[in-house]
Amino acid sequence: MGDGITIAERATKPSAPVAGKTGIFPMDSGVFFQPDTGEQGRFDTATAVNLTGTAVLTKRATCAHCDPSGGSFQVTLPSSAGLQDCHKVVIGKIDSGANTVTVARGGSDEIEGNTTLVLSYRGSVTLRLDKTPSPPQWEVESNTSQLRPDPDDPPTFETFFKIDPDSSRGNFRVKVLGSDGGGAYCNFHVPHDFTAISALELIGIVGSGAAGSGKDIDLYSEHGAPGEAYDTHTEADTTSTYDLTGKTDVLHPFDISGVFSAIAAGDYCGFSLDHNTIGGSIYYLGIRLRYT
Length: 292
Known about the structure:
Layout: H1 7-11, E1 31-34, E2 39-42, E3 48-51, E4 55-56, E5 63-66, E6 73-76, E7 88-93, E8 101-104, E9 110-111, E10 116-119, E11 123-130, E12 137-143, E13 157-162, E14 167-169, E15 172-177, E16 181-189, E17 197-206, E18 215-224, E19 233-237, E20 241-242, E21 251-255, E22 268-275, E23 282-291
């Protein structure tokens, strides 16, 4: 047949690239090729393939299982030329190691405005072709892996810790603090994949009397790792004031990162606050942590 693949090989979907074959095939032949190893295989009616190195997908390749355990590599999408609008490709990273799979555009197409995206974690991304724009765009339809178009831009994660409630505000369970006094406490655990704080905020609904400028709210914290004293690290901010002008009934994020300047992955943290004649109540929901 002129392409170095036997009739038997054509009739069977390869569970892995067929070794020992050489040559580069036209994009409409249903053949994939791994330039770095010389390995290749054919899709025909079945469209899934296992890859362990750099590969160029043909238009018949709609699912690629990528194992970069032997080293990071790149998978190039088929050019949109000759593909139907809304064509889909699923590319998965099947290992949980540090090596990445870079998905590169074919031809002059773009991947949501970029030339590449990077799968850094185990999971998969489903790309859908939109041929309406110029250049055509591969849109991310679903994603169970962290996408990193810039390898130097780490992904951001988010988690929320509920404060101990004593009342309700609408359908929210909240801890109410009046114009003066304390009594609002919240514990949280720093996740084990934590590297740095992107944002650490106390979320509260501002009552009408508390809406205004110069609101004096004191923040206190203690934290430590398992095996350490609970107050290994203690911080306080008793000087900052907050401008809550026009914030009546608004869900307002109070930045509390200043009293958690030394937290590390695995730490257990305690937080409390006091109001100092702020003119009204604030209804606190809990703490939001965004981190890399």
